[in-house]
Design a protein that fits this description.
Elements (H helix, E strand, L loop, with lengths): L10 E3 L10 H12 L2 E6 L4 H6 L2 E3 L1 H10 L4 E5 L2 H10 L4 E3 L8 H4 L3 H10 L3 E6 L4 H5 L3 E3 L4 H7 L5 E5 L2 H11 L3 E3 L12 H10 L5 E3 L5 H6 L2 E2 L2 H10 L4 E5 L4 H8 L4 E4 L18 H10 L8 H17 L1
Parallel strand pairs: 2-3, 2-4, 4-5, 6-7, 6-8, 8-9, 10-11, 10-12, 12-13
Antiparallel strand pairs: 1-13
Helix pairs in contact: 1-14, 3-4, 4-15, 8-9
The chain binds 1,3-dihydroxyacetonephosphate and iron/sulfur cluster.
1,3-dihydroxyacetonephosphate binds next to helix 3.
Length: 326
Amino acid sequence: MPTVLDYEPLVISSKDFHEEPLTAIQEEILELKKERNSVILAHNYQVDAIQRIADYVGDSLGLSYRAAKADADVILFCGVHFMAETAKIVNPDKTVILPDLEAGCSLSDSCPAEKLAAYKEANPDTYVVAYINCSAGVKALSDVICTSGNAAKIVEKVPEDKDILFVPDQNLGQWVAKQTGRKMKLWPGSCYAHVLFTVQSLEKLKSQFPGAPIVAHPECVETVRDMADEVCSTENMLAFCRDHPSEDIIVVTETGMLNRMRREISGKRFIAGPTDTCACNDCRFMKMNTIEKVRDALRNLSPAIEMDESIRQKAFVPIKRMLDWS
Ligand code: 13P
Ligand code: SF4
């Protein structure tokens, strides 16, 4: 068992960074991509080898837009299941593949569709705002979807007389309620990875890098968010780091984020947000996708996302509303 706070910080510098040539497997994927007429979308938390061969790397909001506009027969989605499912909901006629079908999400799992359906039956006037990190079944029961990049904007657009239930992330919901002044009931779900960041681990890091600002994801708990100079989606973290004058920045989210920062923002040092027992924090679901599984998925056009058409149609409505509202 690792000792609490007994580790060296993880510092990723972009100061002397240069890209290595692509490996044979990465070249093979780019060839297969052409043969299959496919587009590769990757979340900011994917491993660097995958981010490098993607057509687009971004946050959930950017990925939703890219998926909606995808001009290809096949969408290879390098992220977790609910993200690939969202791509399928907006592209029913395309083949959507996910390198590992087991790549789930603890946050999504914390709100099963049956429980939400039971809640709605007992509270029929509820207006459900669902964070995109949820299943197609939950989306189908929701009024509008949001991501961490547009959550406050979406909630502000909900008519004042509506009684809002925000699912499934209580931390993001609490942050949005504070931002907007809007009273909302919060579903008691959370991201297992983001709640591992602690005040004590960040205080120790701050004592080692006193001038470094902290940028944190809204899925973190409130005490951690309160320590941050900025709280935002992964895409907005890039803009924050690019624009901030400090050379050192503490980035409190999943470690894959640092790959993109190192590639796209020169002359800085990015310090990974720590937990009590580790200098960094990987999401075990995001990291189920490997470069080999990406190659195999394109070769075999499998595993593919399938869903019931009536669920898909119902889930499309709140996604479309989000895309229109944001
Ligand atoms: P964003 O990239 O949209 O900020 O979401 C983070 C996340 O946890 C996705 O699973
Ligand atoms: Fe889900 Fe958290 Fe992993 Fe994102 S980081 S996919 S919210 S478990």
